[in-house]
Predict the 3D structure of the following.
Amino acid sequence: MTEKTQVHPPASEALKPGDSYVQSFARGLSVIRAFSAEAPRQTLSEVAKRCELTRAGARRILLTLETLGYVACDGRQFSLTPKILDLGFAYLSAQPLWQFAEPVMQALASELGESVSAAVLEGSDIVYVLRMPNRKIMSVNLGVGSRLPAWCTSMGRVLLADLDAEALTAQLAQLDAQRLPRHTMRTVASTAELSQRIAQVREQGWCLVNQELEEGLVSLAAPIKDRGGRTLAALNIGAQVNRTPPEAMLETCLPKLLDAARQISRLVQIKG
Amino acid sequence: MTEKTQVHPPASEALKPGDSYVQSFARGLSVIRAFSAEAPRQTLSEVAKRCELTRAGARRILLTLETLGYVACDGRQFSLTPKILDLGFAYLSAQPLWQFAEPVMQALASELGESVSAAVLEGSDIVYVLRMPNRKIMSVNLGVGSRLPAWCTSMGRVLLADLDAEALTAQLAQLDAQRLPRHTMRTVASTAELSQRIAQVREQGWCLVNQELEEGLVSLAAPIKDRGGRTLAALNIGAQVNRTPPEAMLETCLPKLLDAARQISRLVQIKG
């Protein structure tokens, strides 16, 4: 497609799968995502191989990213620049929700001395969007943008509980097909049992997960809701079981968590 | 350019400014950045207008983003999805530095009860890459990815102090041309004075900024250095002047900050 056809598009605006716009943009984004902790710096050939692109194709994308300031090159190796953060930041700043949530979460984390996080559902994963770390409960990799499977996390179950019956059934069927991994002795053993627990979460309006994902990790989650009562995100407190056993979570943390979730929901409903 | 020529590129690999790859990719990224707190949800026409694209061009990009899962559409309005965070996360996870820095910063924040941040230089701005918030000193907008002008922040001066003479001169000339805004009574008044302070930072290996950016905000920064002694990032403690005056910052916080910065530098130098 030439520059000219981009400016003067055909009468039909339908998106064709082979549209070069789709291709080049999708490839560009895949190059950004090719950089990771395992491969923070890569040569042109490495990027091409990792993204299944020709050298020429990879080179065009890398030079484009360099021109735009998203990639730096030290001669032979390419790496991402901090400007890349602007793209994720666009998301965060685009959602008034997170601006309302942050001070409330900060106050909660400092009052309880526990880590407080918020996440949304993305397919069958939860994605961390905000996180107030406290002490050293969570691993380094649970920063903003990191993912965990929804089914065995407290935030995930809160989010799954708000799915339409059809969407939830599809997720459970998918889990059934892959068989539930047993992360600990306590991990829920079947999708039938999981389904019951999700129904209970829907009923009671919060979720406690006791060491189903990792030994020693207890977590409690509640939904942040929009005006129509749909769940926008989940709010969570994570704690170490030896310091804060499940009973203490329910007694001390639950009322405060529900309160914080209600506070954020109200702000979103009024001003969002 | 057709799909075919992308797979079989011309012999010359040179990037031409009019290359459609550059254009479509750059436009795609500009659409992502068009979403903000002021415009979290936008119609096709609004996106087109904001990005100076034709409706057809904007539509193609939005549909591409939707196909890739980065954008959702509720019928009429488009918004970013949390998958967008993967792009910024690619940067964070691509830098071993941040994985080493996080636990050290967390320990420092919890020991001092002050907020601890890390930033890198991006042109004349600092960009926040990690942040351990504590209490309510920092405004909501100082999250990961947010920017501040380097010249009037402690992290900025630490980062500027490591620039080559030529690059620093260029930055100062640019500041001279735009005249330094006086954020508070204490903001440095001239680039000559700024240049002296930066030289002092280079000499002493840390920087204290006392309410030059905002009344009441005192901050202290130190460099994280690579094997060759070059500054990779700056580490910072931000405090409220009434609670932690500059003298207390120097007495209590400075040794701990320098220690944390050295610890992270050593980890990066050994394992990074």
Notes: Residues 95-271 of chain B form a domain with the Beta-Lactamase fold (CATH 3.30.450.40). The beta strands of chain B are 42-43, 71-73, 77-80, 115-122, 125-132, 147-149, 207-210, 217-225, 231-240. The mean pLDDT of chain B is 84.
